[in-house]
Amino acid sequence: MSPADDAGGSGVAVPDSGATAYDLADTCDLEHVEPGERYLGTVNGIVEYGVFVDLSDEVSGLVHSSNLRGSYEVGDELVVELDEVRENGDVAFAEVTVEEYTVERVEPASDDVADLGDLVGESVTLVGAVVQIKQTGGPTVFQVRDATGIAPCTAFAEAGVRAHPDVELDDVVRIEGRAETRDDAVQVEVDALTVLEGEQAETVREEQSAALDDLAAPHEVDPLVEWDGLEQMWDDLEAVATRLRRTVLEGRPIRMRHHADGDGICASVPLQTALERFVRETYEDPEAPRHLLKRLPSKAPYYEIEDVTRDLNFALEDRERHGQKLPLLLMLDNGSTEEDAPAYRNLAHYDIPVVVVDHHHPDPEAVEDLVDEHVNPYLHDEDYRITTGMLCVELARMIDPDIADEIRHVPAVAGLSDRSEADAMADYLELARAEGYDESELRDVGEALDYVTFWLRYDDGGQLVTDALNVDCDDGTRHRELVEFLADRAERDVERQLDVAMDHVEHERLDNGAHLYRIDVENHAHRFTYPAPGKTTGKIHDRKVAETGEPVITIGHGPDFAVLRSDGVRLDIPEMVEELKAEIEGGGVGGGGHLVVGSIKFVRGMRVSVIEALVDKMARAELDEELGSSTPVLED
Ligand code: MN
Asked: Quick one: 140 and 65 in the same domain?
C-alpha cells in the first residue's frame, strides 16, 4: 500500500510539481514508510558521520554524510527517502533534492471501537465524534463514536481538571492511546487528542453518517398477529424504530414519558428493555443504559407543564454536569392532543426532538408542527383498539428482535387493561395462552401494574414493574407470586372503596334513555389511596353496566374535576369539552381523553353549572344499537 492510500488529510498546497513529500503523523511507524517514496524529516541530532532525522515519534534514522546534499542544524527539515532497514532494526535514509513538492499528510489507519476488546494492552487510534464529555474527580472522559460503536476515552490533566478544554461535543477527533480494561470494561487511555477540522472532519462525518444509517435501520420482523389495522401503521413504526436506534447511535439520551397505567407500562417497558440492549451493544461503557435511558410515568393523560419543566431542568442539568447531549423525548400512550402542545412549545426552546406513539384521540393540527414523529391509529382511520402497548411491542422487536420471546403476552395485557375490543384480541390472547397465561392471569397482571404504579407515583418502579409484567425478569415464580399478591391487594382495596361509595351513587334516567349515575368521589370515597377517583368511578360504572345491561353513563366528580365513563352512548368528550369551554364563561373548563371516556377540570365555584351543562349534552347523545362496544380505559 502506498502511504497516499491511507492519507487521511488534505495536502498542504505548495506550488504545483510532480513531487510529493509525505509528512507522517506522530504515531505512524515504519509500516507507513515505503521504498522510493519521499518523506519530510526533521533533524534531531548531528554526528560526525551524518545527521539523525525523525519522520514521526516512531520512525527515526541516520542520513549518512555520503547521502547528505546540504548542511543542517537541529530542527531543520529535509526531504529523504528510505535507504535501508538493517537486520538490527536501524533505519538509514538518503536525502533527496526536490525543487518543488507537495506535502501530503499521512495519518495511521484508525481502529474500530468494536475491535477494542481484542486490542487491550495495545496502542490504538480512534477517529470519531465526541458524544459526551464528562469531568470526573480524576480524568476527563470523552465518549467517542465511530461507525462501529461508542467508547470511553479517558484523558488526564490534573485530578478533577478538564483535559483538552478546547474539545466540544460533536467535534470529530483523532485519539491515540492505549486500550485498557477497567472494571471489566474496555476504555482508551488517551495519549494524544487532535480535533480534526474542515474537509478532514467533514469526510469522517460523511463516512460515519452513512455507516450509522445502515446500523440505524430497524430489524425486519413480521407482526405478531395478522391484522390489517396494525399493518397499515408499519411504515410509521419503522420510522420511529429507525429514529430511536439512530438516537442511541448518536449518543443522545432518550427520556420516555408514559401514561401511568397498564397500557402505558406495556408500551414503555418492552421498549425500554429493547433500547437498553441496543445501548449495551453500542456502548463499551456498561453504565451507559443508566445514563441514557429514563422512563417516567405521567399521572395526567397529557404532558403537564409540571412534567415538562422537570424534564427540561433534568436535561439541562445532565448536559451541564455530565456533558450529555439534550435528550429525545418519547411520549407513550400520551402526547397526541392540544393539551400537550404548551409543553412541547416549552421544549422547542431547546434541541429536544419529540416522538409520540399514542392511541388517544389526537388533535393532529395542534401537535404536528411540534413533534418529529407521531404514530396514532386515529391518523389511519383506526381507533383506540390498537393500544399503545400493541404498537410498542412491535417497535421493541424492530429494535431488538430477540426480545420477542419475553413479550408475547404483553399485547394481551395492554388490550385487557384498556378494554380493547379489537378482533385481534383473540389472537393476542392465544399468543399469551401459548406462553402459559390464561385470561384471568393477564387481567391480574394489568391490575397489579395499575396498583404498583399508583403507589410509585412519579417513580418508574424499575425491577418491581418489570417483574410484575414479566419482561426482563429471570424468575417466573417471583413474577407469579408478586402478581397474585398485588392483584389481591388491589381487589381488596377496590372492594373497600365500593363498600363506602355504592350507597351514595345517585341515579337518574336521561331523555335519551341512558342511565346516568353520579358519585361524589371527594366525599364518598377514601381519598389519597387506591383506587383513585378515576378507577373508583370506573369500577362503579362497570357494576352498573352489568346490573342494568343498558346504556350507562357514570360521572365521578370532585370539587374541581369530573371523571366520565360511558357504555352504549355515542359521546364525543373532546368535543363536549370544547363546547363547554366556549359556553361557560368563568368555568375554567379543560380536559379531554378518548371519545367516550375522559375527564374534565373546572373551577370549584362553577362545578354545578359545568356538570349540568355536561349532563344536558349527554342527554342528547345518540345511543349505540348494540351495547358493550368501545369502552377504552382512561384513568387519572
Ligand atoms: Mn392506552
From this structure: no
Kindly give the distance from the C-alpha atom of residue 538 to the centroid of ligand 1, in angstroms, as a whole number: 15
Task: Say yes or no: 241 and 383 in one domain.
Answer: yes
Band of pLDDT at residue 100, cut at 50, 70 and 90 = confident
Lowest mean pLDDT among 100-114, 219-233, 514-528, 597-611: 100-114
CA distance 41 to 38: 9
Question: Residue 588 maps to which CATH number?
Answer: 3.10.310.40
Question: 378 CA to middle of ligand 1, Å?
Answer: 13
pLDDT at 8: 40
Q: How far is the CA of 470 from the centre of ligand 1 (A)?
A: 19
CA distance 398 to 233: 14
- Mean pLDDT along residues 437-451: 94
Q: Which domain holds residue 314?
A: 220-485
How many A from CA of 528 to the centre of ligand 1? 23
pLDDT in tens, 589-636: 988 777 778 889 999 999 999 999 999 999 999 998 765 544 555 444
Same domain? 71 vs 208: no
- Ligand 1 centroid distance, CA of 385 (Å): 9
How far is ligand 1, taken at its centre, from the CA of residue 422, in Å? 13
- Whether the per-residue pLDDT at 6 is higher than 70: the answer is no
Angle at 568 (CA atoms; ends 566, 574), nearest 5 degrees: 50
CA of 419 relative to ligand 1 center, distance in Å: 9
Question: Helices 425-434 and 439-456, interaxial angle, to 10°?
Answer: 90
> How far does residue 362's CA lie from ligand 1's centre (Å)?
13
Same-domain pairing of 248 and 314: yes
Residues 316 and 456 in one domain: yes
Ion ligand 1: residue ranges with CB closer than 5 A:
263, 333, 388, 418
The rounded Å distance from CA 333 to ligand 1 centre is 5
Q: Which residues contact 584 (CB under 8 A, 6 or more apart)?
A: 602, 606, 609, 610, 613
Structure confidence at residue 475 (pLDDT): 83
Q: Per-residue pLDDT for 240 more than 70?
A: yes
In a domain, 476, yes or no: yes
My answer on whether 298 and 441 are in the same domain is yes
Residue 527 φ then ψ, to 5°: -100, 160
Domain count, the chain: 4
CA 214 to ligand 1 center in whole angstroms: 32
pLDDT of residue 632: 53
Is the peptide bond prior to 15 cis by the omega test (within 30 degrees of 0)?
Answer: no
Backbone angles phi, psi at 59, to 5 degrees: -120, 115
